[in-house]
Protein 1
Amino acid sequence: MIINRIQQLAIKKLGNVSLLTILLVPFAMQIFAVVGLTGYLSFRNGQKAVNELVTQLSNSVTARIDQRLQNYLNTPHLIQQVQADAVRNGTLNITDFSKLEHQFWNQIELSDAVDYIYYGNKEGNFLGVQKYQDGRTVVKIRDLSTAPKREIYLLNSNGDRLKLIKSKNYDPRVRPWYKATIKKGLSTWSPIYISADLGILQITPTTPIYDEKGSFIGVLATNLLLSQISDFLRELKISKSGKAFIIEHSGNLVASSQDEPPFIIRNDEIIRLNANNSSEPIIKLTVQHLWEKFGKLHHINAPTYFRVILKGKKHLVQISPIENSKGLEWLSIVAIPESDFMEQINTNTRNTFILCFSALVLAIILGIFTSRWISNPILKLSKAAQAIASGKINQNVEGKNIKELEVLAGSFNSMARQLRESFEILEAKNADLEEAKEALAKSKEQLEAVINAVPGPISWIDSDGFYLGVNQHLAGTLNLSPDAFIGQEIGFLSNSSEFAKFMDNFIYSSDKSTSQIISIQVKNYLLYYLVAAHKYQQGKATVSVGIDITERKKAQEALRIAEENYRSIFENALEGIFQSTPEGQYISVNPAMARIYGYNSPEEMITNIKEIGTQIYVDPNGWDQFKHQLEQEGKVKDWEYQVYGKDGSILWIKENTRVVRDDTGKVLYYEGIIENITKRKQKEEALKREVEELKIEIDKTKQNQQVADIVEAESFQTLKQKLTRMKQKRRKKFEQIEKD
């Protein structure tokens, strides 16, 4: 309808024109409009695709930075907390620097998470083990023998000292990491400062150490070099000219994917570099924009996006806060220029315009030939009509020719009308299809985000044992891209024959789902995963999901060793060890306790003693007094009382017992140690009897002395000599008792 109106308007304006012009001009105008619209839509869609791609890439890079830094920043505090718990529980003697040095060396050798672990106490003593970036391992020590200097020794592959390589004055109590911990009183982060040994920038996660009584004794710390964070940012695949960097809320640069260091050297002094003074234009421009928009950088508490223009090029910038529960607050910034992706789009757009222009020229040429082919028969008919009108009535003009033109016009109008209706229906269906495609794309994007956010490996494998795809976690763990797995046979990396065998057995079995614990070798470390697999598409494909249970396996092994150690102490102790209920029934006793009471085995004693208060205590009130003191003070120390043995004999026992409670304070059981002090008590009773006998003899001597004074003075001398002999005899008895 619109085209007809344009044609009618053109005829009115132009007046009489040839049929060839009427047919050709509208046709050429339509082709030109279609070509122009196609080129414009091609450019717009390309630019939209680039914007979406840049945003997705920025989100992906930011997520990877955040995930890597969280692992990098949380691991040191976890290691320190384990050590602090060991000190508090008494299983680690942190004052024994010899054993502590060996333990630090083992942790450095076994863990890639930290390369420097050290400890400084309130007396100024210091011990640390560090692996330098050149691969050498050293121990750093300051104690009473080296103070005020700290000595650094090179270690061999067994952790033994080789030689002294450096000695310099050093006091840990004045270092930033020690002061920050004292000020905070909890696990925290030091400010970024210069290493006293290496002279480079670093930051220190720290944990205060307390003894069993809760008294502060020192600080446990590990160092993180800022250069290591910069190395990670350089390894990120952002884009051709994309950049990533991290800053503090003060604006000081922490790390950057560029070669620019986060410091400057002025008069042989290292000074922190503020991002406002960076030599990288995009870093400087981005931080200036942040200051202008937010005023203070600590106001940024959520991911933020904006665009900046640098040298005529648009850059998408994403800022994401990096926060740590221990007080660390940084900002991660990713800047990606759109030009990195527009070059191909511009090339495609240019090619599209060339192709459309070529199609326009070709369409015009074809339109000319087509118009002539259509207009020639009509011109012949027109000449025939003019001939008849001029009076040449002998022309063979059949009325059917005019009728065919009318039918042709009617058919064309009918076809045009049907075409318009079909086009409207097609547009409606196309709109529904676009909505469905958009919804599908969003669902796919959400599914990919969920899968890549899963902190465990996920893989899809066909029925022939070849990878269909993996998630980002699995690819990143093995230092590969997800595309590197597609089409590869399971087991191609040779790092887990268990997984390959597990999947082969499952694929060729009739089971629809299964699970198994599998070990995988990753970067010289053996990791354990609980892998669950499920078939789909009628068994033509499988999906497997793994959960990292390495730490749980390590904890189980540590628990097993601890239980074995406790069982060895329990079974082989010379003192009696027991656990009992508050009601007076034994839960467990060790062999030594059974022997003290005269039983052949702990089982026999537990079976026979049903009520401690009446079967064990000679004085039944003693059990009630014992329980009362436990309830009041939570423990009983050096409790001495008489008990019955298996054969009915009476024994003297000294007992130390404590109350064990659950998290709610409810009493679970009593736990204590007993010692048989019967012989000691017998000796004490014998000594008392000797003293009483001596008193009696002294009284008799006094009476005799009085009689001797009356009878004769010489008798007094005799009595005196006798008393002297008695004293000597008593002294010998005391000496003999002390020797026994």
Protein 2
Amino acid sequence: MNKFNASFEDCYVVLEGQYLKIGNQSLERVWNITEGIPTVVSLKNKVTNKEWLTTEDTHDWLSNVNQKYAFFNSSFINGDKLSLSVEADTDDDCGVAKKHLKVQVSIEYSECIIKWIHIVYPGSPILRSFINVTLKEGVILPERIEQTEDVPAQRAYFKELTDDYQDSYPLEPNHCGWKSVEFIDVTDDFDNLVFTKEGLFNRREHRFVQGNLLVVHDHLSKEGLTLIKEGPTPHDYLGDVDSDYFIKGMNVFTTGWGFGENDLNTHQTLTSYGSTVLLWSGNEEDALSALNEYHNAIHIFNPEKDAFIMSNTWGDQSSDGRLSEEFLLDELEVAARTGVTFYQIDDGWQNGTTANSVLPGGAWGKGYYKHNPDFWTVNNKRFPNGLEPIIASAKEKGIKMGLWFSPDSINDFENREKDSSVLIDLHNKYGIAAFKMDGIEFTSKAGEENLTKLLRRVIHFTDSKVFFNMDVTAGIRSGYYGQLQYGSLFLENRFTGKFGEWPNYFPHCTLRNIWMLSRYYPSYRLQAEFLNVKRNVELYQGDVLAPSACGIEYSFAITMFANPLAWMEQTGLDEESIRILGEIIPKYKEFQSDILGGHVLPIGDEPNGTTWTGFQSITSDNGGYLLVVKEYNTNPQHRYKLWNLSDKTIHLESILGSGVQETVSVDNEGYATFQMDGKFKYALYKYTTR
């Protein structure tokens, strides 16, 4: 029997006898490797000595799988394993992630070789797993024949998982509840981005669940685990994927590899979506803290890339019609006055024409090089002197530059090497530090993997000086929990002008989306737009929640706990708006990195235009920041439930807005009362406890 062991700080992998163990000081998972497929043995919280899994035979296991296999796929994992070996090394995902131990378990079968990959971080109760499959030379998998179940249509809920799963958790506790969190992208068409469902485990019940997160809470021990499906939203499912989890009795299975037999026959090697487990003890605050630790492990907060105020011209709906050297030089003059830190030139800087251009006959999403071999050179008609004068002006003003880019989706991003070289050259020549990645359309798991290779190559060859703004507004893309750790999310297109038949920018809707997402997703990885609220006022006539009623300061302020995006032409602002932004943005920048580097969570009521709402950034055990937001509301005060501050007196330093309070007492249930006069008001406070 093979033996192997390796370690990094407190992380370790041990293969000895019939057991494979991977863990650190916080958690340990154990599998039995004597069967053809490893079987589940243990998942332990080493801090509390809590065992989460059972190896006992139970009647609520899958009816067509006779062992508690760690993973299963009837299409290509058949028969006994021919060999098993383990190797391990340290990695940091191109400098983006916390340094970790990466373990690769190679298992050979008759038709394929499995590389079962696990990632464990020092001191963190986190274990991430992926399955890479490589078909052996000459192997062609037969198409799966769908089994027709003899179940009446009205009883379709009896359908069971039959063919494959990525991970399994035969739970030991008898009295657990579950909560699923489903995220929605394609934000051009959807504006309700987070949905949750809850239930109790029951021996006779089974269901398919959609959602990147599945939270399990043992109601007796008050301990929990959070499962993360590192993949897309339901809008972006590929192949025959239709769920993220299957619950049967007390068992949970991570479902949906992201590819099937035909994909493997075409591409030979593919990797499943990720399956991650986090362990925690306590209540919702502890569960969310563990989730935040996961996010900070896969993407270390870097103020240079994760705390910025970006300006992009597209929000005023001129498309590329106004782009020129003169226009951008004028834009930068105003940007220097308003205080933005990044200026991003959207679609139109390049020689090629897209379908979004004011010019006819453009390409979109794929086939750019067929459309124009020089598609991604600088447009010499709009910029006869190149981008050099614009870059020089930005540098003089201390503004970093970004560009829009659309990688060629054709044939699963077959031009990824060419595209990545374009981006590397733009960085080397002009110092471009941020690329907005748009027009992406996945047609298979191979496309997703090839795009990830493109991103990683750019980061590697620019010494990690570049980051990406990944557009999630349309197309079939990676959602929120796919391989998106290499930058931020361009969350939504919102306009005061007509988008379709109506304007779709309302500050309270932007606020609500940040508020809903921030519970489960780091807000520093979200770009949140504020617009020129004095444009298109006539389209909102009579609407008390119109952008113009909110004002430019309030519209900016509600984005301060994300990365504010000035979605506008700077030259379209009037002098009053320039003055207001020029006063508040520089002050905000003094605190932005500290705010976003904390754990940002929503407080108050869910925004709808009429509530008291806001955010709390926890930067230490005794300090942080509060953004108290009063929408169109006449009440002079409101009770807020704060995080981790029960029975404390907090001392407040007013930074921006209408805050006048200096101390607030928090009761034993965590509630504190805040006061503000007027409507569409806010208060940004720094708080400390003594």
